[in-house]
Here is the input.
Amino acid sequence: MWNLGRSAAALLIVVSVMGLLLSLPCRTFAASSGSSYGWEYENPLPEGNTLEGIWGTSSRDIFAVGDEGIILHYDGKTWGRMNSGTTELLKSVWGSSSSDVFVVGGDEDSIILHYDGSSWTRMPVSIEGGIEGGIEAVWGVSPSDVFAVGWYGDILHYGGRTWSEMDNGGAGCLSAVWGSSSSDVFAVGYEIWEGYGIMHYDGDIWMPTDSSGTGDLCDIWGSTSSDVFAVGNEGSIWHYDGRTWSSMTSDITDDLSGVWGTSSSNVFAVGNEGSIWHYDGQTWSPMTSDTTDNLSDIWGTSSSNIFAVGENGTVMLYTQQADQESSQEGDSAGGSGVSPWVWVGTAVGCVLLLGCVLVYVLRRKKRAPAAWRR
Here is the structure.
């Protein structure tokens, strides 16, 4: 049994460690503070699960989804895990408001979840023969006009009450969907129709577009109906000007999995091994991210507040000031390419570390031997 002196010493150690931890920069990130701008790196929770998709209504209302049924929510200060009611793989998220959010996924079977602002519920999908391979992506125009696409070419539509299957025009594997209106919707995938990689819906039927040679495409986004970007494997980037699709010239060889922007001259693409690329209206340029985790998706609220998610629960954040500071440091260092991404610890990490110290103290008190034990 410990005597009073040893107990006091143990308490002093704990208090000292607490003071040290509180002095460390283990803070939660506040995207809406406006005091810092640039790329920042953050693992919001020690989940370890890959995050596949991200979407939000504002900088204080963001949802991220991924492996093992994980759904994270960001309120502008901290990330918290929501009860999804499933352990299925979740791949994509979209909503019309903070109380009308859709999440899709599944591996062998499909799953669609809906959030009403209070809780997540599984939506029934009564499709003859079922949907194999899961649902890859979801996007909509309004609460009663939502599209979802599946791995084996399934295209679903939600009209406000039920999900129904659409005639897919002969599409193959689909990976993403986006549109400018209910009569102007694109879906991309993997050689989805006799070598064509992009399908289009005009409000009446789905048809393949003149997009031969696109290769495997993973995501699509546009600023307008005549300014649409599609990205995919081996650096494939295609642009639509309202009439035709054309391949964009770049030095990119990375597999790209996500694309998002704010205008035709401010577009971001993310991909494998932490690759992040920026398009300024003229050229695609690489951005240093200081992570080798594969990135899955990207979304933002503005040109100065952009999130990217990926492997191992990684969440990256871009803000303008950090980018400017990074550029200045790079110039002073002779253009060394200083990363605008900064690692930001979370309060969760501090609590976990303190917990380990407390557990050790308690076990040390219970077990008399002086040596550390595993």
